[in-house]
């Protein structure tokens, strides 16, 4: 049985009349196959060898096309395994919204794998972030976040026990659980930095050790200014885009003419 992705790409190449390099045409055909769900999220693609044989082109040409897709985050490549369609998730930075709500709003299917749900004594970083004395208990929640079944983030959240008395109150959404306890956050502060995956993080996210991570630390507050949540999320940097809307502020107190640019 012919692979539908290979058939799609071959048909696209047969109809192409432009003078673009062949690898570029293959890249564009594979991209279009992903957009049309001929190749769905996490679906393995034909091997480099089989695709080059079916198309009648060199493996070097196919490899260059696949490298282009991987560099743009559209393809997930692991040593010793077939390439698969990458999952990319967009997260808005300007609004305070939970992972599941954000993903559903963009047409994705959220999921999770719980690694830890417990009452605990905070470590120093959690105490400082939440403004707690060292002896005051917290609820600690650690889970792998999934998008359409693909692990894309490792999340570690800490909430003072006074706001969330039992970790089992959180089934899917932390914010829903806080809302039921009349402890919904009204504002948050985020810090984003780059990192690389350790062996344990790479295993959890199904990437290679040393893969790029986007590390987001978020602190959320109640209306009275008390910290209600401290979360550190380590996102697969090849699957996540952060989106921020910018507004241009014009200074009307000064006039800018053509001469001012020189």
Task: Please characterize this protein's 3D structure.
The protein has 262 residues and is an alpha+beta fold. It has helices spanning 4-15, 22-35, 48-55, 59-71, 99-105, 124-130, 174-180, 199-205, and strands at 75-76, 84-85, 89-92, 110-120, 138-147, 150-160, 187-196, 212-221, 227-236, 240-243. The protein contains 8 helices and 10 strands. The strands form 3 sheets. A 6-stranded antiparallel beta sheet has the order 4-5-6-9-8-7. The protein has a two-stranded antiparallel sheet with strand order 1-2. Strand 5 and strand 6 form a beta hairpin. The radius of gyration is 23 Å and the shape is elongated.
Short description:
This protein has eight helices and ten strands. By secondary structure, the chain is an alpha+beta fold. It folds into two domains: 4-85, Orthogonal Bundle (Arc Repressor Mutant, subunit A), CATH 1.10.10; 89-243, Chorismate lyase-like (Chorismate lyase, 3-Layer(aba) Sandwich).
CATH architecture call of the largest domain:
3-Layer(aba) Sandwich
Number of helices: 8
- Proportion of strand residues: 25-35%
Q: How many β-strand runs?
A: 10
SS-based class = alpha+beta
Largest sheet: 6 strands, antiparallel
At the fourth CATH level, what is the homologous superfamily of the largest domain?
Chorismate lyase-like
What is the overall silhouette? Answer: elongated
Mean pLDDT: 82
Q: Considering DSSP H and I runs of 4 or more, what fraction of the residues is helical?
A: 25-40%
Radius of gyration: 23 Å
Write down the secondary-structure element order. Answer: HHHHEEEHEHEEHEHEEE
Instruction: Determine the CATH topology of the largest domain.
Output: Chorismate lyase
What is the total domain count? 2
Query: Unreliable segments (pLDDT under 50, ≥5 consecutive)?
Result: 256-262
In what order do the strands lie side by side in the largest sheet?
A: 4-5-6-9-8-7
């Amino acid at each position: 049985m012919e692979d539908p992705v290979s058939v799609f790409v071959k048909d696209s190449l047969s109809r192409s009349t432009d003078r673009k390099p062949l690898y570029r045409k293959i890249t564009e055909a594979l991209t279009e196959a992903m957009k049309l769900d001929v190749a769905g999220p996490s679906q393995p693609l034909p091997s480099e060898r089989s695709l080059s044989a079916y198309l009648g082109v060199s493996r070097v040409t196919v490899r260059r096309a696949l490298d282009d897709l991987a560099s743009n985050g559209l393809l997930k490549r692991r040593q010793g395994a077939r390439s698969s369609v990458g999952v990319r998730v967009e997260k808005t930075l300007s609004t305070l919204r939970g992972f599941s709500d954000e993903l559903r709003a963009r047409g994705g299917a959220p999921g999770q794998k719980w690694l830890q749900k417990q009452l605990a004594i905070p470590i120093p970083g959690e105490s400082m972030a939440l403004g707690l004395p060292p002896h005051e208990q917290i609820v600690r929640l650690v889970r792998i976040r999934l998008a359409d079944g693909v692990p894309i983030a490792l999340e570690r959240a800490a909430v003072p026990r006074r706001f969330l008395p039992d970790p089992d109150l959180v089934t899917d959404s932390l914010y829903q659980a806080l809302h039921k306890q009349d402890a919904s956050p009204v504002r948050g502060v985020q810090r984003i930095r780059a990192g690389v995956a350790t062996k344990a993080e790479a295993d959890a996210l199904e990437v290679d050790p040393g893969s790029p991570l986007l590390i987001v630390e978020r602190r959320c507050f109640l209306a009275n200014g008390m910290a209600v949540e401290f979360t550190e999320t380590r996102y697969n940097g090849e699957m996540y885009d952060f989106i921020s809307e910018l507004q241009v502020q014009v200074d009307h107190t000064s006039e800018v003419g053509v001469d001012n640019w020189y």
